[in-house]
Structure formats: C-alpha cells, structure tokens
Amino acid sequence: MLRIGPSGNSDAFYASGRKHTYEEAAWLAEIGLNAFEYSFGRGVAIGDAGAAKIREEFAKYDIEISAHAPYYTNFSNESPEMIEKSIGYILDSIAAIRKMGGRRVVFHPASCGKMQREEAVCLAKYNISRLMEKIHAVFDGTFDDYIVCPETMGKMQQIGRVEEILDFCKTDARLYPCFDFGHINSYMQGGLKTVDDYRRIIDKTAEELGDEKTKNMHVHFSKIQYGQSGEIRHLTFADEVFGPPYEPLAKVIDEYKLTPYIVCESNGTMSDDALIMKKCHKNI
Q1: Containing H/E element for 71?
Q2: Best label site of 41, 212, 218, 258, fewest CB within 10 Å?
Q3: Please, what's the b/e burial string for 64-85 (b: 16 or more CB within 10 A of its CB; e: otherwise)?
Q4: How many Cβ atoms are within 10 Å of 102's Cβ, its own excluded?
Q5: Continuous segment of H or E residues that includes residue 134
Q6: Bridge partners of 91?
Q7: Which among 125, 110, 117 has a CA at the least distance from the CA of 72?
C-alpha cells in the first residue's frame, strides 16, 4: 500500500483545534492521509504513556507512523565517543518507535567536516555497519520487521548523495534508502525536473539494491530553496521557483507499481501538500 502523510503537526492540524500528536491519527484519516513521521530532531523524549496512547490511536485509524532520529547523528565523526552517541540516538529512536507502533527510523548519515569526502564516506560506511551490528545485538532477533533509513542530504558538505546512500544500504538487509528528493534537487542545483530524472534514480536503486528495497523505499518530499552550498530552507508547494516537481515522481511510482512510504516536509503546509501529492497518483 502506498502511504502518504506529513512530517509533524501541520498548521492545518492546529487550526482544526487539536494540539496533541495522538489526535493526529483521527484527523489524518478524516482528511484522507495514512502516514505520519514523528520527529525526535532535538532528542528522544517521549514517555511510555504518551507512546502507548499514540500507538492505540494510530492503530485504530490505520495510520502508519515512522520516526526521524535526532539531527545530531554523524557517522564520519573522528571521535569514538561521538560515534557512540550517534549509535545511541538511533537505538533510542528505534526503542521509542516500537512503543509507538511504528517500524521505520530515518537518520542523517554524516558530514565531511575537515576530511576529504572519500575518507569521510569510508568512515561513515564503517560506522554505519557498526551501528547495524549494535542494533541486531541489542534487539536480538526481534529486529527483522524494522527498517533503518539513511537519508540523502542537501548540502554540499554533507554525506548523503544518492550513490552513497545506495552503498550504505548494501551493508545490511534492514537498511532501506530514504530519498529526500528536495535534498537531491538542492544538491543537483535544480537537476530534478522530468520523469526520466526520477526514473534514473529508481532504476539505479533497483539495480543496486533489488526490488524489495526499491518498492518499499522511504521518501521525503518538499520544495527547497538552494544556493551554491546546497539546501537553504524548506518551502511550500506554492513556490514556483525552486522545485522539484512532484508529478514526474508520482508517474514513476505508478508506472513501476511501487509502494513507498512518502512523507511531506513542506514548511507548515505538510498535510495540505501531502493531499496535493496524493492526487497526483492514479491508483489511490
């Protein structure tokens, strides 16, 4: 099943008079969306009671929930202590999303820092492999239904080009790509425009990772302002300057019969723009 929904509580959600995330499930079902991404961007802090309430409500309305790990993760950091902190952020995110009834966690892979890119990428790949070993050890046989998604990044000095994410995902069966197409477009300086632009990414994914990870990839989408250094800020679908357009991606998804988990990250209008995205698909 194709799932589409917002990242976080949108302006429209609050305008409806609701304020708690557990209320999001009934509201999303009411407006016609079926996914939601909970951000642990500044740290994993949710109590058992709150997580249980979210799990109950989201299950009741068949809204799938995912999580974004804290933004501080950097698997090319040269400090072993900082790598352990990054591992800890993701372990905490997995433990929390399990309590909330979800099965996907997205994370930022790394940045170059003062290293050459090739060196930073190699270090990130090694440490992501360590992360996955730790995950399997901690959750000991109970992790097979869970997915961890390294995300494509939008700034020139960040690690997370499409080819880098594909290479990371080869290291473990539970690593699935998170393609943030706004980030990819920012990195490419506006290079995502046509059906063929998107098809090349999907074809390369299928070639390198196989059908399962391609069909069920994680997707972030928003229009993003960019400059020479890449991503600057998230925009709304009202923007007609920066892009990327969603319609060509929807055509590829429909053509290939993919069932990705699609999260809209527009600036405040996440639910409104997710509904626009949904209308671009023929079979929903």
Answers
A1: none
A2: 212
A3: bbbbbbbeebbbbbeeeebbee
A4: 26
A5: helix 117-139
A6: none
A7: 110
C-alpha 185 chain-centroid distance:
15
Token pair belonging to 32: 């016609």
How many residues comprise the chain? Answer: 284
The DSSP H or E segment spanning 166 is: helix 162-169
One digit per residue, the tens of pLDDT, for the chain of length 284 reads: 899 999 999 999 999 999 999 999 999 999 999 999 999 988 999 999 999 999 999 999 999 999 999 999 999 999 999 999 999 999 999 999 999 999 999 999 999 999 999 999 999 999 999 999 999 999 877 767 899 999 999 999 999 999 999 999 999 999 999 999 999 999 999 999 999 999 999 999 999 999 999 999 999 999 999 999 999 999 999 999 999 999 999 999 999 999 999 999 999 999 999 999 999 998 77
Dist CA 201 CA 208 (whole Å): 11
CA distance 23 to 13: 9
Q: Which two tokens stand for residue 50?
A: 């709150």
Whether residue 206 contacts residue 177, with contact meaning beta carbons closer than 8 Å, is answered with: no
The reported pTM is 0.96
d(CA 24, CA 19): 8
In whole angstroms, what is the distance from residue 220 CA to residue 223 CA? Answer: 10
The CA-based angle 151-69-258, given to 5 degrees, is: 45
Distance, C-alpha 89 to centroid of its chain? 16
**Nearest-angstrom CA–CA distance, 47 and 69:** 16
Give dist(CA 180, CA 172) in Å, integer.
Answer: 20
Nearest of 281, 161, 169 to residue 214 by alpha carbon: 169
Instruction: Provide the 3-class DSSP secondary structure of residue 265.
Output: coil
